[in-house]
Design a protein that fits this description.
With 312 residues, the protein is of the alpha+beta class. The protein is built from five helices and 17 strands. The strands form seven sheets. It has a three-stranded mixed sheet, covered by helices on one side. It has a three-stranded mixed sheet with strand order 9-12-10, covered by helices on one side. Strands 14-17-15 form a three-stranded mixed sheet. The longest helix is centred in the first third of the chain and has 32 residues.
Length: 312
């Protein structure tokens, strides 16, 4: 016999209440799970063939090297955005260029032209000149780089070529003391020596003259002739063949008294000197004196000279 209607209604009501409570429980669990791990709901798991969800960590593809840091996709488990550091790509290596080279030849003691021919078109030649007292003019003294070294073709070889001996003018230091004269000559590269001789006109200790007088090779010896003051004995200067007017000055400067100066014709000279050569002997040159050349005589001694006059 069917149950009374009131019992069926009571059973349906109970069933509905139980279902509502289960649904509310499920919703509460979902809400609680979301609060505990929000990322678990960021991605939907894919169902497998059996209907089970597979949760996996996303695999990051290999990074491509660039000059900037690339963003990386968030992982499936956390949903967070990790920072990935990408190393810069190594620089592209520079290709090696091979340059042809050769061995530098020995150019020392060659002439400038010979050095140029030896170098040829292999290298450039730079020439520097300097004086040398030991290497002849136009000959190579030294080179850079040295012979035997390796040098790329087309580079420059520098050679030093001799200009020969440097000739330097001697300054006029007559009347100066030995210190001043020596300094002036040393500054020009000369070495200096000194000798003394009597002088009636130059004060004791001062320079009478230099030997050589006008010029000499750089670094050579220059002799200072210093005055030793007046002397009771003088040496007759050798003035044979010198111009008679200049000879008179030299004789008097030596402390002699020139009393007579006589011109002679070629015939008169040949009369006492048959070997005399009238053609080559200088006109106006001193022929004789009454005192022997380079003899010692008392100061102030008289002396007479003769000179050749080709017009007589």
């Amino acid at each position: 016999r069917p149950a009374p209607r009131s019992n069926r209604d009571d059973l349906g009501c109970v069933t509905w209440l139980i279902g509502s409570a289960i649904l509310l429980g499920i919703i509460g669990l979902v809400v609680l799970a979301f609060k505990l791990d929000p990322g678990a709901f960021a991605n939907n798991p894919e169902p497998t063939a059996t209907g089970q969800a597979i949760v996996s960590t996303a695999t990051t593809a290999p990074a491509v090297a660039t000059d900037e840091t690339q963003p990386v996709a968030p992982t499936a488990t956390t949903g967070q955005q990790p920072t990935a550091t990408v190393q810069a790509a190594p620089p592209t290596p520079t290709p090696t260029v091979t340059v042809a080279a050769g061995t530098v030849p020995n150019l020392a003691n060659l002439t400038r032209e010979q050095a140029q021919n030896t170098v040829g078109d292999n290298w450039q030649l730079n020439v520097v000149e300097e004086y040398s007292s030991s290497i002849s003019a136009g000959v190579v003294i030294s080179q850079t780089p040295l012979s035997g070294e390796t040098l790329p073709l087309g580079e420059t070889i520098t050679i030093v070529v001799s200009r020969g001996t440097q000739i330097v003018a001697i300054p006029d230091v007559r009347g100066e003391d030995i210190d001043g004269a020596t300094t002036a000559l040393n500054d020009l590269g000369f070495t200096v020596d000194a000798v003394s001789e009597p002088s009636n006109t130059i004060r004791d200790g001062l320079v009478i003259r230099t030997v050589p007088v006008t010029e000499a090779p750089f670094g050579s010896l220059v002799t200072l002739v210093l005055s030793s003051g007046p002397s009771d004995v003088v040496v007759v200067p050798y003035v044979y063949g010198e111009d008679y007017e200049e000879a008179v000055e030299v004789l008097e400067a030596a402390g002699l008294n020139v009393t007579k100066v006589t011109p002679l014709s070629c015939d008169r000279i040949l009369g006492f000197n048959p070997d005399f050569d009238c053609d080559s002997f200088p006109d106006g040159g001193v022929v004789t004196s009454t005192l022997a050349w380079e003899s010692e005589v008392p100061r102030g001694s008289p002396i007479d000279i003769t000179w050749y006059d080709e017009d007589q």
